[in-house]
């Protein structure tokens, strides 16, 4: 019966103390460790069961026996160290990969030491822990039951050595077969109780982990959706999804599992200590002094080893940088016949890495000798003194066996607590990023709440200056002013990169101008309730995005019950079909086998570009908006699709207030006003004819496009189409 079995298994799962790397190394280390322990335990049991007098007839021989045991332990420790040295060599590659991953996950480990930084880190850790506690508080009952089950399991576990000692006494000294059988039954009952409560604890914690995981994901997702567009411009999408997909699970798993083990080890240690004092207070005091000494040595070594690990990692990163640079520019390397110098540079970096790794291996070897030897020294010391107590009839042999088992269990608990605490701090480091993101406040102020009874849709931009947060040094709009009155169709034209789409984004309040105002009906766009406003100001983007759902649900996107829209306000099937008719796509949808229920596929891949765009137009129109923002994009469409989209837009523009980023001459010709945008300002405005007559930027733009169009006309023009409508500006 080994009371540490559960500890060892769980320990291996959750703890990542610095000196143990790679499952192979850890496995072999554990085997060697177990061998030593079994050797020692075997001796202890032998000595205790048969009585020191039988095995070693007198105290002197007993001492010789113990000296022999010390030799055995030392040999075992050396064997383990040797084995470790070899394993260190073999697992070097795997370990560095693991380290690189760990450092990527927890860059706080890589930050330079500094008082301010350390204080900030502490504050951030505290906030992370508080957040996680707050999230877990919702499962107080579940977790309390899990902890109670854990405590009962620890109690039952602590009883096992106690009964084992009694069994030894009944079988050897007292020779009481009835008590022997009864105690064996008790031992089995304690084992069963321990197993059942361990199972309950494990199951409940798994439920807790999953619930925390779901809660973290939900809150993180909500926080991400709340963020300003500037955040998405700078954040890497892979990183964001990895936070959501991997980090949340890691955090929930690591934190819960480590807290679970910590609580269990703590309870176990307390109970074991009580039993130990009960078995022999003298021995308990000795153990209590020796175990922390042994653990302190491990701790000091751990810090040194981590430092060494960082250096190794830095060296490896430099070697990788040399390889990356060479492989990323292999053509240049070859063209300049620089292969030899690149190889030499890489080898030099690897040599530095190798030397450091040798130091690491040596340090690891030393550690293993100490770490293997010291616990056994503790055991041997306890056994030596305990043997004397037994010889002096101050303690029974069974109590000594119990004590030895408790001592094993206690050092296991201490070790496990130390490991779990360091693993917890790493997990808190990983959680930091998730919690930080959950608490991140968008750069834009809180959404407005204004929902007026009437909305004419008068749009006004006055003296707007703007730079994207991702490129704060590049001004995009420089004091731009414009007005769109209800019923007007205003077209924005100008060369690419002039800032037309940026104007549309500001009107949507995706970004805030650094200076100036964007207003609807005289009120700042940010004051309006965004949900309310999105129904009154609709957009058709340059590259409309459809989602993997039915056509009907794509048209209704954002207007369904799940979006918080009251049932009475959700557009009906008739509304959807009407919008599709206006968008010139109804007949196409009806021709599909499943009509409005036809799937669009991921990003709308099952539809053509023109169909996608017309569905996006229907999506805008189903809102019955007061203002339509159109960022025309027809350049990617073939002539037929373009004509279909254009027909739809022409129809719409007659009945709406429209601000259109125009690429077609037909749109521009019909516009109430044309604004020519260049370098972030309106350089010309007026009707088509007036601007042509003025002979400025606009007329030059039209002339240039006419020439370009004439040269490609035969490819892009339908037979019934003149050169005009298919022009792109
Ligand atoms: N998200 C962004 N982050 C940083 N800079 C951006 C971003 N979007 C656009 N820009 C930059 O802002 C400037 C104006 O871009 P914008 O898309 O508004 O021009 P445009 O007139 O609509 O061009 P086009 O007609 O080609 O669509 C460009 O220099 C562009 O590189």
TrEMBL record:
Q: Which InterPro entries match?
A: AAA+_ATPase, ABC1_TM_dom, ABC1_TM_sf, ABC_transporter-like_ATP-bd, ABC_transporter-like_CS, P-loop_NTPase, Type_1_exporter
Q: ABC transmembrane type-1 domain location, by residue?
A: 145-426
Predominant location: mitochondrion
**GO cellular component entries:** mitochondrial inner membrane
| Membrane-spanning parts | 32-52, 64-91, 141-163, 187-209, 270-297, 361-385
- The answer to keyword Metal-binding applying to this record is no
User: What GO MF terms are annotated?
Assistant: ABC-type oligopeptide transporter activity; ATP binding; ATP hydrolysis activity
> Which SMART domains would you find in this protein's record?
AAA
Q: Indicate where this protein resides in the cell.
A: Mitochondrion inner membrane
Q: Which residues form the ABC transporter domain?
A: 459-704
Q: Which domain of life is it from?
A: Eukaryota
Q: Which UniProt keywords apply?
A: ATP-binding, Membrane, Nucleotide-binding, Transmembrane, Transmembrane helix, Transport
Residues annotated as region Disordered?
709-729
SUPFAM superfamilies reported in the protein's UniProt record:
ABC transporter transmembrane region, P-loop containing nucleoside triphosphate hydrolases
The membrane topology noted for this protein in its Swiss-Prot or TrEMBL record is:
Multi-pass membrane protein
Q: Does the keyword Transmembrane belong to this entry?
A: yes
According to UniProt, the name of this protein is: Uncharacterized protein
Q: Which organism is it from?
A: Symbiochloris irregularis
